[in-house]
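Researcher: Here's a chain I'd like modeled. Treat it as a single chain, no partners, no ligands.
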Amino acid sequence: MIIAVLAPLLAAIFIPLVSKYKHTIHTGFFVLPVPLIIFTYFVTFIGRGFSPQLELTKWIPSLDINFSFYLDGLSLLFVLLISGIGSLVVLYSIYYLDRSERLDQFYVYLLMFMTAMLGVVLSDNIFVLYTFWELTSISSFLLIGYWHFKERSRYGALKSMLITIFGGLSMFGAFILLYVISGTTSIQSMIAQSDTVLSSSYLPLILVLILLGAFTKSAQFPFHIWLPDAMEAPTPVSAYLHSATMVKAGLFLIARFSPLLSAYEWFYIIVTSVGIITMCWASYMAVRQTDLKAILAFSTISQLGMIMGMFGFGTELAIFAAVFHILNHATFKGSLFMVAGIIDHETGTRDIRKLGGLATIMPIAATLTLLGTFSMAGIPLPFLNGFYSKELFIDSALHLDGSMAGLAGILTAAIPYLVVLGSIFTFVYSMYFLFGIFTGKHKKNNCLRKLMKRLLACCFLP
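Model: Modeled as a single isolated chain. Structure tokens:
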């Protein structure tokens, strides 16, 4: 597993050499095999009686810091998303980015980020996890600020890095406390000692610090403010970091540590309330946006809040629904970001007020957007996975333990109403995105360029 984690970083070393001596071939074609090989390797684990695996490589034995990688169902899902969506994003970028746009730097940053994300989801050692966690913040800073000549790109990159690094440092503080209490740096060993952790007087502080790490990375209210500004990044970056991978890291952290912390009542109260509030607030804000990527940014925040809320519920049904929706959201949102990039590329604008009537001119893009928005809205069609995960979300919200007292009881009673409110806004912003672009009268002042069918093929695959 260590080879799979470090492979993108090792490949990144050779990218400048390749781009220097192979001018006739797009750099992306040399990058594409890396995520494809990783995806193919891990897919083979699915059909052969898969069971959790732990791989250990010594690093700093005196401090109990080792490259220990743990592969279970949760980490396998994330690895397949990181490498699978990553392959499609690299393919998309080949036709989206111009060759004059410092491609060697772009792909070095992208491969660095890929290594960081693989390290986060596979690490069993808390300090190795933290190292990779902060590497995601640094590499995302470089990717968001890729068009550094734009002031808004620089601002968005700096804002995202400051907020996510603050969260990472908070998480690091929690890891130190967990190490002091449990005497181990292994996450699986800590989970085996959950009673010791739950009885510690440091538990409230540990919970708050870990949640700060998760909430900042997954753009939960009030730390969501970095994600809309990060949309200044190139569309391949938005499709990869801000729909399928980086913003899911906080959700992964919650899922990984929930066996350790979910028995604590305040875990349910804080995670559920923050998740549901984020879902409702961001879905309302999405309706108010006019920039296509801003609409998708707030819709992403809303969907992340929905998943966070399900992890907070803590029931078996809710956790299954949360993991299922992580997969669904990565596919339909990645596709929608790619379509938004194509529309911007074709029309020269992302302002939804200047768009409209494109269904007859871009029927393939319209079909893709219809499938993506219908899945996001949870339209009850049997071939849309988004409907099934939305149904499971509502079902889990309606079957929470009603016997809880105090603040937890009040929250439990309010959840069904908040879920309905958030679901209504989700439907509204999904239809707003679809109809605002493709229906109505075509604005003829938008100069349509040649339709990029290869880019559309990349959108179909998710």
